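Hello everyone,

My group is preparing for a crystallization screen and wants a predicted model to guide construct design. The compound we'll soak is manganese (II) ion. Before spending weeks at the bench, it would help to have a computed complex in hand. I've included the protein sequence and the ligand's SMILES below. Output in structure-token form would be ideal because that's what our pipeline reads.
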Amino acid sequence: MPDAYTIYFHDDLDGTTSSAAFLRFFRERGKTVKDFVPVNYGPTFKSDWPDKKFSRPFVVVDFAYHPRAEWWFDHHQNPFVREEWKTGFKNDEKHFWDNKAPSCCGQVYGYLSKKFDFKFPPHFKELADEVDIMDGGLYKSIEDSLSRETPVRRIALSLECPDGANADYKRFLIQELSEKPAGKVAESGEVRRRFKSAKAELDRTCVHYKKNLEKRGRVAYIDNSLAGIETMSFANYDVYPDALYNVNIDKFYHGRVAGYHLSIGSNIMKREEVKVNLGDLVEKYNGGGHKYVAGIDLGTREEALRVAEYFVNYLNKNG
Ligand SMILES: [Mn+2]
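Reply:
Good plan to model first. Here are the tokens for the complex, ready for your pipeline.
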């Protein structure tokens, strides 16, 4: 199949659902997709990405720009690894950057519907709207942000359990979501089993936050790296509803190599008070993100603590 596409997608809910939208679109236009490959930012992302060996032709969704991508859609703040890629870039029919889009899934859904007059089945609208809320942090309240009751949120949480991280599970979800409403997909044993285990972990995380979260000025701060707890941004504001920002550290593994992730976010209920662009602020540490939420990967815990300290102070002074 020389013309079958490979879709490279950001390894999260948004990338997975963006791929499902593309699969639907391609399939109905008689094109085949031979594989779906999750990609992520990591300590060596910026040096690896330009020379990465892609299976061609390929599509990139919800992730950094690459000039060889036949189709590319992204909504991140700084998707250009090289300066000349940024200056040479113009949106065209198959390449579209929209850093105002709450999610890439919503972006792809809206774009393909409008530009190609493509008729998605009705369940895609529900999917795109929910991913917009989740990826764009457009929740109605902190309570709403913690709720995992809708089918799309159940699927999102299922990705958080250890065996939700594997690529085959994402491939399964992409196929399923391209065909069926999220409500049907969420009922499958594959999703339910992972949801149950991730929900137990989420409950443990909320207890950990209640016990250990510190309020430092306007910033909610926690180092989760020793407790083996993953950052849960909204838990910050459940504990301290009047905090404006959060700075959280957690530990992750890239294969066998440990790394430390710094999550910097803002309170979704106080967005009009946010004066800085977090995505821009983290650039000098090779981080990435949007105006309201950003992340940085660091090699050691000492480094993570030092950079966290810098941002706690910076945000109290300037944010
Ligand atoms: Mn996204």
